[in-house]
Design goal:
The structure holds three protein chains of three kinds. Chain A has helices at about 5-30, 35-60, 60-95. Chain A is mainly alpha-helical. In chain A, helix 1 (about 5-30) runs antiparallel to helix 2 (about 35-60) and helix 2 runs antiparallel to helix 3. Chain A is elongated, with a radius of gyration of 18 Å. Chain A starts with a helix and ends in a 13-residue tail after the last helix. The relative contact order of chain A is 0.12. By secondary structure, chain B is an all-alpha fold. Chain B is flat and about 45 Å long. Chain B contains seven helices and no strands. By secondary structure, chain C is mainly alpha-helical. Chain C has a domain at about 285-474. Classes of the chains: A mainly alpha, B mainly alpha, C mainly alpha.
Chain lengths: ~110, ~170, ~475
Amino acid sequence: MTTNSVQLLRLYIVFLPLLFIAGFYCIVTTRNLIRTLLGLEILTKAVTLMLALAGYLTGKTALSQALIITLIVVEVVVIAVAAGLVLNIFKHYNSLDTRNLRSLKG
Amino acid sequence: MNMYSLDILLLVALVAAAVWTVLRGSLLRAVIALALTSIVLTGIIFRLGSPIAAVFELSVCAGLITVIFMSTISLTKPLSHKETLEYTSSRMKRFWLLPIIIAAVGASLALAVIPINFNTAAVQETARSFRNVLWEDRRFDLVGQIIIILAGVFGVVVLFRHHSKDEPEDK
Amino acid sequence: MAWLFILIPILAVIALNLPFGVSYRKLAYPAALLLAVSQVLFVLLPPETVLASGACPLCPFLFRSLDALGKIMILSIGIVAFCSVIAGWHLTERAERKFDFANLIILAMAGMNGIILSGDLFTLYVFLEIVAVASFILIAMDKNKSSLEGAFKYLILSAVATILMLSSIAMIVMLTGGTTFADAAMVMRSGSNVPLGLFAAGLFLTGLLIKGGLVPFHGWLPDAYTAAPNGVSIFLAGIVTKTTGIYTIIKLVTAVTGFSGPVQKILLLFGALSAVAGAFGALSQKNFKRMLAYSSISQMGYIVLALGAANPIAIMGAAFHLFNHAIFKSQLFINAAAVEESTQTLDMDRLGGLAEKMPVTGATSLIAFLSTAGIPPLAGFWSKLLIIIGLWVAGFRVYAVIAVLTSVVTLAYFLSMQRRVFFGKLSAELSHITEANGPLTYTAVLLAIITIGAGIFFPFILNNLIIPVKAILG
């Protein structure tokens, strides 16, 4: 690997885990259903960045772009379905509190 | 690392926007922060040599997903203003940990000497054009995209359908 | 030619949804059945030209030809889809829901076929998401509180698993510049990148463990299985979790990572953990479907444990157990649906003595659980025997003993279930019930016949269907 790439990689090694931490923290500590989805979105962006970085470092930007585009399409569908679920949950409980989702005992 | 100063700036902005999304009390502001994260991400991806992906990310994530979130939020109005206020204050108590974690981890990662002893694949000279890769190599993925869009359409139809007569709610 | 199994369902769904008139809706049911049957026939009576893998016009190197394990999976998908469509069609009342149900099942089938046929990590991800999205919608179809909760929990955990898998794929792209199985395998087996490659494989494997509902990532599984509408539970427990979780693990390990040290240890450990925890979890359940869910976790643990043995005999046992579990778990869920339809409850404390009023359900459930517990001459006996022998021969004596003991616990909780639900005294409030309706009994009988048949004709199946499986270890 060229030294330029190594420097770039060092940079990303610092920042990518931070994004992941932010996303996971959001999902774990929130009590709001929609904010859980926001955390999910942050994680998706982190992974998108990883893919773009991988494409850049190996020179295969065409492949990584194709992967990113497919990934974005898939994630949009997942978020849309999740939003539908959240709306229906809201209709039942009239609130977005995740503590409502405890009726099924583990 | 002067040539990377723009990158550093962008990455800091990215993480800051993401943390802002997590911390911001009002949901609406959080979604705007998410859109901001998308915009910064678009810039970074563009610099990483993936212009098409950057445009896609901008139009879909900063656009379509923000719209989805906004409509979901507007359809699920919380109950009362007072409840929102006390909810926000209790939130702050739980969420203050995040910036501290971010700063600590960031500092430790930046200062630690992490050995990078792996090789990336060799950069190939004959780069296939994006169009070839997408339509020929990843054709199976495109078929998958079609299927998942069909499934998503069904999901939206099923989940958003209002029944003319009310169902008895049980279970 | 096997890629037709993805193309034709897509065309079917599109055709069913063209806005030409409502009369199309009635076609959804036979369309779904036809697709399911065609999958079964394809495996059992293969035309010679089909087997030659041939160039796939969709794309040459993302598509793998169908190996022996793939054939078993396609067969299982066909059978379970067939039975769950029949049962589910009967169980959902509203016409529009029936239409959605059939369409979503077809889409899920297309997704699962894609999982089996893919030869590329990213394609695997895309089709995994297809099946996941179809499952979310299917689980939440009833739109009552518990279904939405189950679907949402599944969604969040599945999305976390997706993130893990995608980061693994990104790392692999960084290391090898490609995402096919061959590329990933290159980095795992040799070269200086092996540690990072194994880390990426570990991430991917963790994601798949979450999708397969293995302990300790099983949090979503009991809720999703119990809360889903009964027709969906049959489909979900019968084939979806197996394909998206267990089959993908088998593929990952055999085609990509190989059985290097840490991988094997992880498989053995998590497999044994799931087998034991699932069995003990099932012992303490009161809800019929919830008990079946924990039993599924336990049986999946068996299969992963067998995979960890890295032994041809154990692999054959694992493959056959995949098939058997698809059959008898679907059948048990059909029985649960029948019980719920007749008695309106799944609480095993309130049920009792149903066998005299629901003889078919009681008898088939008896056959199913004897097969699960591994009683000869039913099919489950052979698959468990192969797994235990494989573990013993490979030197994992302790794990073999654990497997045997868990089998005993399995027998215990199923006997308890059978006694509580079907035998014993019929309580007064249930004295008016009748046997379940047609579709639920016919399908249960069909699956029971397959279980008995697979057990009795085992030598025949062994040569044709099972022994070729060990080639995947090649």
